[in-house]
Amino acid sequence: MKILVCVTSVPDTTTKITFTDNNTKFNKAGVQFITGPYDDYALARAVELKEKLGGTVTVLNVGEADTEPVIRKCLAIGADDAIRVNADPTDAFFVAEQIAAIAKENKYDLILMGRESIDYNGGQVHGIVGELLGMPSISPVMQLDIDGDTARIVREIEGGKESLEAKLPLVLGCQEPIAEWKIPNMRGIMTARTKPLKVVEPTSKDTLTNVSGYELPAPRGNVKMIPADQVETLIQLLRTEAKVI
Amino acid sequence: MVSEIVENQVDTTQLIAQSVRELSERLIRPNVRQWDEEQHFPADLFRHLGEQGLLGMLVPTEYGGTGLGYREYVTAIAELARVDGSVGLSMAAHNSLCTNHILLFGNETQKQTYLPRLATGEWIGAWGLTEPNTGSDAGNMRTTAVRVGDEWVLNGAKNFITHGKTGHVAVVIARTGEPNTSRNATAFIVERGTPGFQGGRKEDKLGMRASETAEMLFEDCRIPDSQRLGEVGDGFVQSLKVLDGGRISIAALSLGIAQGAYEAALQYAQERRQFGQPIASFQAIAFKLADLATDIEASRLLTFQAADLKDQGKTTTKESAMAKLFASETAVKVANEAVQIFGGYGYVKDFPVEKFYRDAKLCTIGEGTSEIQKLVISRQILK
Ligand SMILES: Cc1cc2nc3c(=O)[nH]c(=O)nc-3n(C[C@H](O)[C@H](O)[C@H](O)COP(=O)(O)OP(=O)(O)OC[C@H]3O[C@@H](n4cnc5c(N)ncnc54)[C@H](O)[C@@H]3O)c2cc1C
Ligand SMILES: Cc1cc2nc3c(=O)[nH]c(=O)nc-3n(C[C@H](O)[C@H](O)[C@H](O)COP(=O)(O)OP(=O)(O)OC[C@H]3O[C@@H](n4cnc5c(N)ncnc54)[C@H](O)[C@@H]3O)c2cc1C
Prior knowledge:
The complex is a heterodimer of chains A (245) and B (383). With 245 residues, chain A is of the alpha/beta class. Chain A has helices at residues 37-53, 68-77, 92-106, 125-133, 186-192, 231-240; strands at 2-6, 9-11, 19-20, 25-26, 33-35, 56-63, 81-86, 110-114, 137-147, 150-157, 160-167, 170-174, 197-200.
């Protein structure tokens, strides 16, 4: 079983978001980066499958050198080797093209991704990669078992679940509870030091989209407490001040 | 495509810090208050810390440890203590005192027998030097070990021993010579369940309440000579060497507590508004934060300096004592000021700083009080 896991390096969930360059660029200064949480689940399941069925797990990131701490954490969790496509990943199609190029060269049985990145939340890279490789792509996958060349999958759908079967190779977008959350242990951290991390240049540099501006939601206003026995006041304020009724 | 293999050498400590922080936030933070209130020693968590490789950090891999150095070790303790000082203390005592004593002075059989169990967390270790009447003056201990044929018979009591009750194995220092003579103590390995050895009263403490502190009682406890660590008469000298390393771990514990208290205060000072502005905008509060941040940085430098020297195989008696003295006094100061910055909210249990305040005080007492650290330092500089 040859598994490729695509991971993002994203701002920690508690980051205070600011922009530079006239609100067209996210300001990375002082930001702590983490592995995308959905990608973490994808990797954790890949490592579990490898432990059960044998094989290899390769992690792939499209990003510049500053994403390497995140890649190393993935190696410490149990991936065997890593590839970094050396480019600023500025749109989903570009990222998908890079992933597809690596996949064409290496013939993976499974390509696991997160259901979505938690920075730009596009939720489209797995779909595009599936298209480029001519493989089924399924998301969001919350359960995954492999039986020979068949994957048994449970997917979350609006208000319920869908059980599917599909032949490998496949591209999957993963989410919890597909695997148990893993934190690197000391042994993993030590062995990660000698695992190979290959840096390759992108196949193309063209991006199809261009950001013209970002905008943050308006700051939350102060809370006004209305005593429980003054419902009239509450209704009046909802009408005149909040203007929601 | 051009490709190159980059050397995958990173600052491992950074990855360790991140991982232990993640573990602390997920597995420890949600339980901190309950464990503190119930004085619950989280044995399950310790098994997990063992699986993560945190209970045999200094133990070479051939004995089941992770074979890391002090730099990595202090990084891990500080991250645990940043969330819960008790867990940091227990982890430090297990690694630095019991396990390290066997690692440094055990023979091959003893190392093969005990280190793999201790390093994986299958067994929790205790280390008994202190007695009710001899704390700082540990050289005058009253617990005795008398040789009878191929056995030693232990009698006496140790108190304030971390994991004194739940520890599966203890390194015990007992007097084997006449009182007030040199080389009169010897170290032994005693397993729980050995007839004549039992855990006594568990202390009800001000802080560090999730770390078990208890008596160990010996009444005609017979152990074979094969359980002796090193030479007869070397027990006290061995202990001082064990403490040279142990004190670096208490410095790291102090650093973590200070960091945790400071982070809480820093955040609160920016959120709490009085007189229409965040209290951090008052210079009295801002300067306090500046002082705390500076002291913490100094603690960090002293702690990592001692750790690095230890990793280079140097004797660190002075540097360990300096790091422990400064970092522990800093922890007490930072926790105290953090409570002040929180005002009344700092005094209640819904906020984290009152616990840091209670926990921090142990650091100026355990593994040698601040006064004893000054004694150690002054003897080194006045030689
Ligand atoms: C409008 C826009 C502007 C952007 N600007 C920047 C920028 O200025 N700087 C910058 O660094 N990035 C930028 N990004 C890139 C972003 O970080 C993503 O890497 C990439 O665009 C895919 O985003 P997505 O939200 O569509 O991913 P999704 O489709 O939500 O991601 C699904 C899964 O695909 C995989 N995946 C996604 N991205 C990568 C990747 N880079 N490497 C490996 N696997 C991946 C992961 O498994 C992920 O969980 C931008 C993205 C967008 C949409
Ligand atoms: C939570 C906790 C965990 C512990 N864990 C362990 C453990 O695992 N194993 C273990 O062996 N011990 C352990 N200890 C014991 C600890 O090491 C002792 O409490 C410490 O060494 C101080 O000894 P004492 O309490 O007897 O104080 P004392 O020695 O009685 O000191 C009282 C005061 O007198 C001062 N003093 C004493 N002598 C001098 C001097 N010569 N000059 C100046 N001042 C002096 C001290 O600084 C202190 O202020 C633990 C203690 C606690 C509270």
